[in-house]
Design goal:
Elements (H helix, E strand, L loop, with lengths): L1 H18 L5 E4 L1 H6 L2 H38 L5 H26 L4 H9 L1 H18 L3 E4 L16 H22 L6 H65 L1
Parallel strand pairs: 1-2
Length: 255
């Protein structure tokens, strides 16, 4: 049914092309494009490593279940009914755990789906965005994927825009890197660094001198306050001594 559908699509496209000869059609080879995008290869390698690890874990669980089944089959004749039921229950639980892990790893919303979305999807989106931009700029009416299920009975190389897509991705990457570099803190030359250090040293010295001057003024102020306080206490003491002498003299006169 799928092949019949695609043949119908091709026939309709052919009819449409005859009716409107000014239509522009191009195609890409998605597999070729992705194989030449380093970020995609890196993401795919990371994903493949994880998938291999998950499959290995599932294989271990499956082999362990087979061992349990074999042991039960070999020992069933000498086991009691309760032991047989216990071992069968253990096998059932292990099988349920295996199915749960399979769903966790490879289910519709499993770890592989989420990891692919995180690693591979951004690169695929980048490719699709490049295709959309080229199609809009070149005014293509249709862009087919040669590596998809669509059966291409013939393809003229001049309509292949795969290299154009790769060039567009490369330019977008360079622009992104250039903007990141532009927005990054500018690195100073050795001479500029020396000038900056000299200015910083002068500024630090001025601040230190200002702080020292401030401390000296504060010290003088405190010294003056102490001197005034000492004079005030001395004057108070003299007044007290004078009053005491007057009182003593007054007592002597009364006597």
């Amino acid at each position: 049914m799928k092949n019949i559908f695609f043949i119908i699509v091709l026939l309709l496209t052919g009819s449409l092309t005859i009716a409107q000869k000014n239509q522009r059609i191009a195609y890409i080879d998605m597999e070729y494009i992705l194989e030449n995008v380093p970020e995609y290869l890196e993401a795919q390698n990371t994903l493949d490593t994880k998938v291999a690890k998950w499959k290995n874990n599932l294989d271990k669980q499956a082999r362990y279940i087979e061992v349990l089944k074999t042991d039960l089959s070999d020992e069933k004749a000498i086991l009691t009914k309760d032991l047989i039921e216990e071992k069968e229950e253990e096998i059932t639980l292990k099988q349920q755990e295996l199915r749960r892990l399979e769903s966790l790893y490879f289910g519709p919303k499993g770890d592989m789906f989420l990891l692919r979305k995180q690693l591979v999807q951004p690169v695929q989106d980048q490719v699709y965005n490049a295709i959309q931009g080229i199609a809009a700029r070149k005014k293509y009416d249709f862009v087919f994927d040669k590596s998809s299920d669509l059966v291409m009975l013939y393809s003229n190389k001049k309509h292949d825009i795969s290299e154009l897509v790769l060039s567009s991705i490369g330019r977008a990457k360079k622009v992104k890197e250039r903007n990141a570099k532009k927005n990054a803190p500018r690195e100073l030359t050795e001479k500029q660094q020396q000038v900056l250090e000299a200015k910083t040293a002068v500024k630090d010295k001025k601040l230190a001198d200002k702080e020292a001057q401030k401390k000296a003024i504060q010290a003088k102020r405190e010294a003056r306050l102490k001197e005034r306080e000492a004079k005030r206490l001395l004057l108070k003491k003299k007044k007290e001594e004078l009053l005491k002498k007057k009182e003593q003299a007054k007592k002597q006169d009364n006597n």
